[in-house]
Write a structure and sequence with these properties.
InterPro entries: ConA-like_dom_sf, Galectin-like, Galectin_CRD. The chain is mainly beta. Helices cover about 0% and strands about 60% of the residues. The chain has a single domain, classed as Jelly Rolls (Sandwich).
């Protein structure tokens, strides 16, 4: 697990996450928020979801309670591949740019204007992380 809790992001910032999806990956996640109980964005690629197979899931969490999932059936991420995922923050929406150029949007339900908690965990080997 990689936990980055000393950085601060604000609207207009981009987070560039590079790494390798493990060969036997089931899922990984990138969380952005205030802490583990208050997440503005939970980005969770799954490679063997019981309902949809390979799927991208986004959600938010407020005071420990999950919101409604947004599911994208088209998951261009492949096990065993090296990827760059760009997360763009704006005041009302998060944009997740995937390696094939696909972009997924998720509303900033919590209206968080400052992100102080970033976590990357699961079947993903983080090699680079940059805020710009």
């Amino acid at each position: 697990m990689k936990l980055i809790d000393f950085l601060c992001c604000k609207p207009g910032d981009k987070l560039k996450v590079k790494g390798e999806i493990l060969h036997d990956a089931e899922r990984f996640q990138i969380d952005l928020g205030l802490d583990s109980e208050d997440l503005a964005l939970h980005f969770n690629p799954r490679f063997h979801d019981d309902a949809d197979g390979a799927v991208l899931v986004c959600n938010s969490k407020t005071a420990g309670c999950w919101g409604d999932e947004k599911r994208e059936i088209h998951n261009p991420l492949l096990r065993g591949s090296e990827v760059k995922i760009v997360l763009k923050l704006s005041e009302d929406v998060f944009e997740v740019e995937l390696p094939d150029g696909q972009e997924m949007q998720f509303p900033n339900r919590a209206d968080m204007n400052v992100i102080t908690y970033i976590r990357v965990v699961g079947d993903f080997k983080l090699t680079s992380f940059k805020i710009c």
